[in-house]
UniProtKB/TrEMBL annotation:
This is Carbonyl reductase 1. InterPro entries: NAD(P)-bd_dom_sf (IPR036291), SDR_fam (IPR002347). Belongs to the short-chain dehydrogenases/reductases (SDR) family. GO terms for molecular function: carbonyl reductase (NADPH) activity. Keywords: NADP, Oxidoreductase. PANTHER family: CARBONYL REDUCTASE (NADPH), CARBONYL REDUCTASE 1-RELATED. It comes from the Eukaryota. The lineage of its organism: Eukaryota, Metazoa, Chordata, Craniata, Vertebrata.
Amino acid sequence: PLSGGGLGPLLCELQFGSLLVRTQTCLHSDRLDGAADFLVYGSFRSFRDFSFVICCKTNFFSTRDMLTHFLPLIKAGGRVVNVSSFVSFRTLNNCSPALQQRFRSEDITEDELVRLMQRFVAETQKGKHKEDGCLTTLSMIQARSLSKERPNDGILLNACCPGWVRTDMAGDKAPKSPDEGAITPVYLALLPPGATEPHGKFVSD
């Protein structure tokens, strides 16, 4: 269907969490011929199956590295979608009140978020916290940055929750099929030309 509509989707499978992510990202960037209309990305390792440090490296730091390379390739009028989870909001409640305030602040910068994330990882290793919602916060920061740095380009960047979907991580008891889970991300990726909202939002069904 996408090809019939004149679109040429490119699936990029990156080994997030490894030192190869930067090299792989650059290689895939070359395959995009310097520009992309849409970027839909998701990176999530379960805290049940991996150590907290590995999960944070994958879910936050490697994702940030990837976006550093890919966001400049998004064309004017492009759409960027972070496939996140409602868990990112729920688990912010595990943070201290001070961290919650900064994570949810409208003026938090990406550099500050990275510093907070590093602090958060250190505190979690001491048993003070359990999980994080920093990737969704990163999406909100990057949306503000796009509006400031490319104000006339009309790029919309949002995070979303696809729901509980039958995947290797969620298992076969999840109620949604992969096709059903794709509805919200695809909706955000195909927001019509000229749309101004949503932008910098978290969207779920």
